[in-house]
Specification:
Strand order of the largest sheet: 1-9-8-7-6-2-3
CATH architecture of the largest domain: 3-Layer(aba) Sandwich
Distance between the termini: 55 Å
Oligomer: single chain
Structural class: alpha/beta
Helix content: 25-40%
């Protein structure tokens, strides 16, 4: 698929758009800075961050570090305000209101469909199939994705924890070549790194991956994510992204969190979470009022209770917050339970031993 054909998937007005050039995009931060209407003095409590100056729109150091971690190149990366911004940018660049269609596979992350509807794109659903042990993509996935401009898949999936094979992703990307993008949300992939489809990027120019630092990297409060894609797609997204999307403190904290020392601690936490997920799963299986448990491959467990909303309400009264998933297709009375610290999980297990509907 040549670059021109890939670019033609975008809205024509985006392809013709001349992007806004911020002061920092036009010149670096060296020398006497009189080009951005900034205060020459840092604010009280600045601590050397230089918050009186606008940040680099796409910090080279952060992009380089993420490219290293994701086994890709900096030119294949756009750093965003969480995965949500990546989803929104893709929708606005590639979907024409009232004309283009977007595929989602519920139950899944709700922002795919919400962003599509905000953009005026039609949402096509290909619901996951509950096999009893896991959730699988439907047999008619390719048929439903046929004329969709973007197909969103999530692996491990939220809220089911299920995995999509690289063979399935490759087949869909091949089928959609020249007509649409296949977007794989890998927000939870650090919990199952062997399942990442990053190696497929070189084979499929229309494949896009979403990553976030909110989950395994413990930076939910920083709002940092990344789009990984062909440079043609990255260039199109950069045309409409905000001039300064990444606050300086956010970038500074992220760089600290991505050092080798910090990542070593993270790996210990991930191993602990995997063990705790097994412990919580075992306890939930024998809990009264729980009809089904899907352990999944991420940092949560999906359960079906005899009365899901009642479980969520009772847990809240006990000081434990759970997520009701009953509104999702096929998830009546289902509840998503995030794995916490060992102490938090022990409290949950104690509550579940006593609770029944």
């Amino acid at each position: 698929m040549n670059p021109d054909a890939l670019a033609e998937l975008a809205r024509p007005e985006i392809r013709a758009l001349k992007p806004y050039a911020s002061a920092r995009a036009l010149a670096d931060s060296a020398g006497i800075l009189l080009n951005a209407n900034e205060s020459p003095w840092p604010p009280a409590g600045d601590g050397g961050l230089g918050l009186n100056r606008y940040p680099d729109p796409q910090p080279a150091g952060l992009k380089s570090r993420l490219a290293e971690l994701y086994s890709t190149r900096p030119e294949n990366l756009l750093v965003t305000r969480g995965s949500d911004e990546g989803i929104d940018l893709l929708m606005r660049v590639f979907c024409r209101a009232g004309q283009d269609r977007v595929l989602v596979c519920p139950p899944c992350f709700g922002m795919y469909a919400l962003s599509a509807r905000v953009q005026g794109a039609e949402v096509v659903q290909a619901p996951l199939v509950d096999t009893g042990d896991t959730f699988e993509l439907p047999e008619d996935l390719g048929e439903k994705a046929g004329d969709c401009r973007i197909s969103f898949l999530c692996s491990p999936n939220n809220p089911t924890g299920s995995i999509i094979s690289s063979e399935t992703v490759s087949a869909l990307a091949t089928a959609q070549e020249g007509t649409g993008l296949v977007v794989i949300d890998e927000a939870y992939v650090e919990f199952a790194p062997e399942t990442s489809v990053i190696p497929l990027l070189a084979e499929h120019p229309n494949l896009v991956l979403l990553r976030t630092l909110s989950k395994a990297h413990a930076l939910a409060g920083c709002r940092l994510g990344a789009v990984i894609a062909n440079p043609v797609i990255i260039d199109l997204l950069r045309r409409i992204i905000a001039p300064y999307p990444l606050p300086t403190p956010t970038v500074t904290i992220a760089m600290r969190a991505l050092t080798e020392e910090s990542l070593a601690d993270e790996r210990k936490h991930l191993a602990m979470l995997a063990g705790e997920r097994d412990r919580v799963t075992e306890a939930l299986v024998s809990s009264p009022g729980i009809a089904k448990v899907w352990p999944g491959a991420a940092n949560f467990v999906l359960v079906r209770a005899a009365d899901g909303p009642r479980l969520v309400h009772a847990a809240a009264a006990a000081g434990i917050r759970l997520r009701d998933q009953s509104a999702q297709p096929g998830l009546g009375d289902c509840v998503r339970i995030t794995i916490g610290t060992p102490e938090e999980n022990t409290a949950l297990i104690g509550f579940m031993r006593e609770w029944n509907s």
